[in-house]
Amino acid sequence: MKRFFAALLAGLALLSLPAAAGAIEIKQITTPLGIKAWLVEDKSTPVIALSFSFVGGTASDPAGLSGATDLMANLLTDGAGAMKAQAFRQRQEDAAASIGFSASLDRVSGSLRVLSANRDEGFELLRLAMIEPRFDPEMVDQRRAQTIAALNQAAQRPASVAGRTLMATLFAGHPYAADPQGAREDLAKLTPDLLKKRAAAILLRNGLTVAAVGDISEAELARQIDSAFGKLPVGTSPALPPQWVPPTKPRTVVVERPVPQSTALMALPGIPRDDPDWYAALVMNHVLGGGGQQSRLFNEVREKRGLAYSVSSGLRTYKSAALLVISTGSANERVAEAIRVIKAEMVRLRNDGITEQELTDAKTYLTGALALSLDSSGSIASLLHSMQVDGLSPDHLTRRGALIAAVKLEDVRKMARRLLRDEALTTVVVGKPVGVTPEP
Amino acid sequence: MLPSRRAPIVTQVVVYKVGSADETFGKTGVAHFLEHMMFKGTDKVPGGEFSRIISRNGGRDNAYTTFDSTGYHQTIAAERLELIMRMEADRMTGIRISDREIVPERQVILEERRMRVDNVPSALLDEAVRAQLYGRHKPYAMPVIGYPDDIKKLSVNDLSTFYRRYYAPNNAVLIVAGDTTTEAVRKLAERYYGPIASRKTEPRRRPSKGAPDLPQKVIRADARVAEPRWSRLWLAPSYRMGETKHAYALQVLARLFGGSETSRLWRALVVDGKVGLSAWASYSPASLGLTSFDIGVHPAPTRSMADVEKAVIAEMKRLLDGGVKPEEVERAQNQLLAGAIYSQDSLASGPRIYGTMLSTGGTVADVDAWPQRISAVTPAEVQAAAEYVWRDDGAVTAMLTPAEGSR
């Protein structure tokens, strides 16, 4: 360990030297075992970041076993091979390596972050986590108890209750309705054996998407990927959930909680990532309630009326559904007015579209904003990974500007008419709202 | 100036050496309220346009207020550095604060407080705990966002006075990170910040002692609490105040005692004793005044607060009596140093680290010497730091429970 310690100090000294120049250049590699990966080689910091995922997420939990995929993903790093949880974690810490897995509705995702000097150890631990996870009964019990505590806490947090209620309402009868962390009665049924089966069903070499960034060459990355992922079996990934059928009438759900501020979520059917008019939707959302402090909702709800601290809208895409979700939080006595103002803005955008100035501003922001997120190896790796999941090509980063520039006023107006439909609006309010009437 | 050519972007951070701890009781929240008003208009940039201009230039911006500092930051394409520097310099002295603008903004801030504090039982408890630890109405005892009654009363005059007293180039730190050069930054800074007049600023004062009546216990029984939490906070020296020689050993102590799932506390309470669902220790030394060393535990179902307290005290005693092993200290040092390497991989963390240090009385040399100082900490120093800080007459015990008397 002494030697490693000295290497760390040397590493810190190196970092004060000027970093190497270089724009983002994506290389596509295919390993000797046939695994495809994207790489951005960057020697400016002695770090390697890996972002990857497997097809199949919490929506593929077996019937009556909700929470299995999420718990399985958590437990992959809780002991592997001959090492129990504490020993496995200690090895990661000693190598300054960090391995993590998480589950979303459609995928199980993983990440590795390691100093390039310790890459062999980092990739070896990653291999062990995926190929030989232990699922020791005492760790299953520990993580299960923590998950149940987290569910209990979420059930009291207005923003979590709102998010959960929104998904349960919109997707009633569809796999996306279930809590990704599981139901308490299902969690009680999960055994090490069931979790092993879940891992075997999802961790398949042919369901893998992988991206790497950092201080590693193409040949070395190919070697490391083969050693970490090469032993995974080939098989059939879980089937995608059926396509969602969006609601056709407005609904308002109120969940009572003893808090001074109500959280409100307003959701509409959105637009799939591969829709040809995606960029018109991106522009429309930016003008309506997109990031930063420039949107119409920010201006009308917060700046002019002081009705909320936070108000925004965002596009969410899943494999079998897409949403446009507006969120805000306002004092119980004023939340009805906040909702009224938001609805009025939806109508205004639908009827009048956006202005030439708004279109120009949105384009410059959306073109420039992507670069802002490229601020660490991990964030670049996760961008590369999501581009692959979305079916984009490596030259997308150079083509994206032209796609945004091509959006016309009329495209945005059409998109507003397509998405901002009162009859498809689902509203969830959590708190003690005054003047909000539930619509079943 | 922190160069990085990874992406063609730059981040500018201006940190003023003023925070909520420079307020007085009755006018709490003024530093944070002023931070909000900084996004309103000047003669050159009309109201609400600041962020809009940055956004339409493809950038992002925001701001924050802490006990000791107030920071404003923008990230944007490298060639637009001049734009954000010109605008930041303009609002250093040019903000026009009017009743028309503070009326809705006051409601926004009250909503922010509801979201962050009033809706959150643990945040309400933390507010009460700070009042007990530092002494009621003392600088670190009052919430950064302010008390609702104060927020409702703050006037144009309160905000303008605070602004004129503290916002000046000689009371600010400028940090630029990203794809630019020291020469370019110096030239622009001289052009835009250079002509702004200095102001005479008073030395900032922080009490050298905490509350006079410790130890204390604070319990919040709240129907909105689903999972109980036990915690204990000790008054602790920072880099700047108290027995500052312990500041580095305390970081190593926090790491090895409760900084990860391999820490002493986690092993004893979560893995072996099954008393807790999770357990942690934390310590933040970058403070102008005293700070705190915190230990916390989420009790396991069926285990009482008393069980948890007993187990924590037993672990503390084991360390105080038996000391720490050299390899434990080395592991903790490795983890802290690795964290420093990874943070240099991110454009955002460099400015944050320097901004915090420079606005709490530290220097660039302090930041640069941090790895050496951490790696110089010995096992005996870790034990001595624990002995110094873990004193009964310096602590507040805090319990968050679902309802009176349960568990």
* Total of DSSP H or I helical runs spanning 4+ residues of chain B: 15
The rounded distance between the terminal residues' Cα atoms of chain B is 53 Å
Number-wise, the strands of chain B total: 10
Distance from N terminus to C terminus of chain A (CA atoms, Å) equals: 63 Å
Spell out the helices and strands of chain A N to C: HEEEHEEHEEHHHHHEHEEHHEEHHHHHE
Largest sheet of chain B: 5 strands, mixed
CATH architectural label of the largest domain in chain A = 2-Layer Sandwich
Please report the total strand number of chain A as a whole number.
Answer: 13
Global structural class of chain B: alpha+beta
Strand content of chain B: 15-25%
**Based on CA inertia axes, which overall geometry of chain A fits?**
globular
| Poorly predicted segments of chain B | none
CATH superfamily of the largest domain in chain A: Metalloenzyme, LuxS/M16 peptidase-like
CATH class group of the largest domain in chain B: Alpha Beta
Kindly state the percentage of residues in helix of chain A: 40-55%
Mean pLDDT of chain B: 95
Rg of chain B, nearest Å: 23 Å
What Rg of chain A is obtained from the alpha carbons, in whole angstroms? 24 Å
In CATH, the topology of the largest domain in chain B is named Cytochrome Bc1 Complex, Chain A, domain 1
**If strands are numbered along the chain, what order do they take across the biggest sheet of chain A?**
1-2-8-3-7-6
CATH topology of the largest domain in chain A: Cytochrome Bc1 Complex, Chain A, domain 1
Describe this structure in words.
The complex is a heterodimer of chains A (440) and B (407). Chain A has 440 residues and is of the alpha+beta class. Chain A folds into two domains: 24-229, Cytochrome Bc1 Complex, Chain A, domain 1, CATH 3.30.830; 251-431, 2-Layer Sandwich (Cytochrome Bc1 Complex, Chain A, domain 1). Helices cover 44% and strands 19% of the residues of chain A. Chain A is built from 16 helices and 13 strands. Chain A has a six-stranded mixed sheet. Chain A has a five-stranded mixed sheet with strand order 9-13-10-12-11, sandwiched between helices. In chain A, strands 4-5 form a two-stranded antiparallel ribbon. In chain A, helix 4 (119-131) runs parallel beside helix 9 (218-229). Chain A is globular, with a radius of gyration of 24 Å. Mean pLDDT of chain A is 93; it is low at 1-22. Chain B is 44% helix and 17% strand. In chain B, the strands form two sheets. In chain B, strands 1-5-2-4-3 form a five-stranded mixed sheet, with helices on both faces. The N and C termini of chain B lie far apart (53 Å). Chain B folds into two domains: 2-192, 2-Layer Sandwich (Cytochrome Bc1 Complex, Chain A, domain 1); 216-401, Cytochrome Bc1 Complex, Chain A, domain 1 (2-Layer Sandwich), CATH 3.30.830. In chain B, helix 10 (264-272) packs across helix 11. Chain B has helices at residues 30-37, 49-56, 81-93, 99-118, 121-134, 148-153, 156-166, 182-192, 247-258, 264-272, 305-322, 326-343, 349-358, 364-375, 379-389, and strands at 2-3, 9-16, 60-65, 70-77, 172-178, 216-221, 229-236, 276-283, 291-299, 395-401. With 407 residues, chain B is of the alpha+beta class. The mean pLDDT of chain B is 95. At the A-B interface, helix 1, helix 3, helix 5, helix 11 and strand 12 of A face helix 2, strand 4, helix 4, helix 10 and helix 12 of B.
